[in-house]
Structures are given as structure tokens and as C-alpha cells.
């Protein structure tokens, strides 16, 4: 959808099949990822009026054999990193092209984030062509934080391989925990005010006004900040050994 700020957004509606709390996860997750310096799509609250829904036949959700009209009101918007009418956008690049992606460290920072927030979905990305003349032709943005905090459950069933991007070649240059800097240090030193501000950006309707549950989620995230380094070590020690360049330090 094109919004009144002139940008295009992928919009998730409150009555999506995954539940309204997915919108809260999207906003909270994106704000926290930005605090770590990870390249995520810009999150926004998008107001979609009832009139627009009623007069736009495409605004429906397919549930099995049924079509359900999208609800009006405050929805979650994930900003396109470019003009989708002019610039190609891809959700997959083969390994042969992943080396030409700018800011590949974004994948490393996003693993720190996904471990911290216990993202229970596979890591989703979009790639897009950068302006002509750039030495690295593709840019990347991390999208879809809806299943952070274990989706609607708001808990943390951690597992060693959870959060890894499916194309492990993006981790070939990782040599140890120091490769995950500055993201680990930013996380460990993240002030409580940042967590609280991120929580305050979420409309109460997206978590059904259950303020105490949101507060408990924020407290849990605060406690988990210094556990992520150990989670990454457990990931490397798993049988899959996702970081082939890892050096064993004395």
C-alpha cells in the first residue's frame, strides 16, 4: 500500500490469521532491531480507513475457502526499501550472488537479535538492486519479526540452531564471538529506557490491552541481554557447525 508519506508498505491487518499479537511483535521487534543497528525495514503504524476497505476489492484475507474483508483501523506497516514499481525486489538470492550483498554483517547482527528474541520462524529477508555504480549491487533488509517471542505465546523456547539464516554461506567470515561486534556489546549495554520506548510504540489494541503481559515480556528481554553470547556458542558447538571459519582460542 502507498501511504500519505509517499512510501510503499507491506501492511499486516489486525484480523490476519496469525492473530493480532503478531502486529505487536512486528513493531516491537523492528524497534529493538533498530536499536542494535540492524538493517530492518522501517516499521510504522498505518491507519486504514473503513471507506478504503469497503471500496478496495483486493483488501480481503483468504481463509480456506472463505474471503474475509480486512478490518479498518490501525495496522502494521513494513516500509519497502525502494520504489517497488521501479526497482526489483527479491526474497531469495543464490549463494553465488550473496557475496555481492552490501552490509553482509547485517546477517550476523540479525542472528544476535533472533537469538535474543527467540524468533521461531525462519529468517526472512528482501534484497533489492542498489543504484548503478555501487560496487556491491544488492542491498538487504531484514523483514518479518512476527514470530519473535514465540509468536502469540510470548515465551522463549530456545534451541541451538534457532535464528540461523538458511544460506549458511553468509556466515563464512565469522571467526569467533568478536565477529558479532558491535551488536553483542550494544545488546548487553542496552538501556531499559530503549525497551520501554519500543513497547510504548505498540498500539494497545495489538496486544488486547494486556499491559502486564507486555511488561513481563519486556522484563524477560532485559534479563536475556547477557545470555546471547552463550546461545551463539551453543549454536557453533551443535553438530551442524554453522560457522566454518570459527577459530578455537586458547
Description:
This protein is globular. The chain has 250 residues and is an alpha+beta fold. Strand 7 (124-129) and strand 8 (138-143) form a beta hairpin. The chain has a 3-stranded antiparallel sheet. A 3-stranded antiparallel sheet has the order 6-7-8, with helices on one face. A two-stranded antiparallel sheet has the order 3-4. Helix content is 31%, strand content 16%. It has one domain (9-237). Helix 1 (21-36) crosses helix 4, helix 1 (21-36) runs antiparallel to helix 6 and helix 6 packs antiparallel against helix 7 (211-224). The model has no long low-confidence stretch (mean pLDDT 95).
- Give the N-terminus to C-terminus distance in angstroms: 53 Å
Q: What structural category do the secondary elements indicate?
A: alpha+beta
Number of strands: 8
- How many separate domains? 1
SSE arrangement, N to C: EHEHEEEEHHEEHHHH
Q: Compute the number of helices.
A: 8
Tell me the radius of gyration.
19 Å
- The geometry reads as globular
Tag the structure with descriptive keywords.
single chain, 250 residues, alpha+beta, three-stranded antiparallel β-sheet, 31% helix
Layout of helices and strands:
Elements: E1 9-12, H1 21-36, E2 43-48, H2 50-54, E3 60-63, E4 66-69, E5 73-79, E6 89-90, H3 95-98, H4 105-117, E7 124-129, E8 138-143, H5 183-188, H6 192-200, H7 211-224, H8 228-237
Antiparallel strand pairs: 1-5, 2-5, 3-4, 6-7, 7-8
Helix pairs in contact: 1-4, 1-6, 4-8, 6-7
How would you summarize what this structure contains?
By secondary structure, the protein is of the alpha+beta class. The chain is built from eight helices and eight strands.
